[in-house]
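Reopening this ticket.

The earlier resolution said the output was attached, but the attachment link was broken on my side. Pasting everything inline this time so it's all in one place.
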Amino acid sequence: MIGLCLGLTGAVWAQLSVSHFTLAWNHTIEKIRWEEDYRITKQGLVLEEARVRGNGAGMEIPQGARLENGSWHYRRSLPPMQPLSLGRTPEAGDYQLCFDDQCHFMSKWIGAPTYSQPSMQMWACETG
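Inline output:
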């Protein structure tokens, strides 16, 4: 089964048997929630839709976005990402992974963000 691997430079720290997920976080300056929905394919992670609850520094609402339930919804046409790289530091807070109607902080699987490991990657992988 294709699932989600978390780690860095090919070293797997955790594997999740999911076919899609939402990556969520709060903008470090504006403190506004951002969410991106991904589908996992053999080619990589496909961004299906994104949402942001407002705009601010580095958070311009893309043209064509629609306001729905307090969030701006939009789609971007991007090739599958393999891997998706994320910066992760203590002052920025932790990302959340949401699937099966629940959200969990990334630290549940890979520990809290640290200065000694300020980044991580996510990619599609075979899970057992």
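Reporter confirms the inline version is readable. The first helix runs from residue 107 to 110. The chain has a mean pLDDT of 91.
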